[in-house]
Design a protein that fits this description.
3-stranded antiparallel beta sheet, alpha+beta, single chain, elongated, 22% helix, 23% strand, two-stranded antiparallel sheet
Length: 115
């Protein structure tokens, strides 16, 4: 399954290959997207054994879980708590605020905030 744009309720942020992002490893500033190829766990939200954060290929490793190869970050690989997610990029926030694609979303949230 591939999503251009979706939403992750757990991490409260947009996901999908259409979302510009920065690797969620705290020592990395590489630009990625929040598509399936970058997600810890290999599926949206991370699946049952991973955090669901997004990493560059340097910060994902492949582990075998239940006889399947699963990409995982170092935290999940070692059973530690997840990293804090990186904030949305300025580029992504600007796109959401100016693109006609997001006009309905902006209107909905403005109305919701004023009620």
């Amino acid at each position: 399954m591939y999503w251009s744009i979706g939403y992750d309720e757990h991490w409260k942020r947009d996901i999908g290959f259409g979302v510009d992002a920065i690797c969620d490893h705290p020592d990395c500033k590489k630009e990625i997207d929040r598509g399936i190829e970058h997600v810890c766990g290999g599926e949206p939200y991370g699946g049952d054994s991973s955090c669901g954060l997004y990493f560059c290929k340097d910060h994902l490793q492949t582990n075998t879980i239940d006889n399947e190869e699963v990409p995982q970050c170092t935290q999940c690989s070692s059973g530690k708590e997840p990293f804090e997610p990186t904030p949305d990029t300025e580029n992504w926030l600007n796109y959401k605020q100016t693109s006609s694609y997001w006009a309905g979303w902006r209107t909905y949230h403005e109305q919701k905030a004023s009620s």
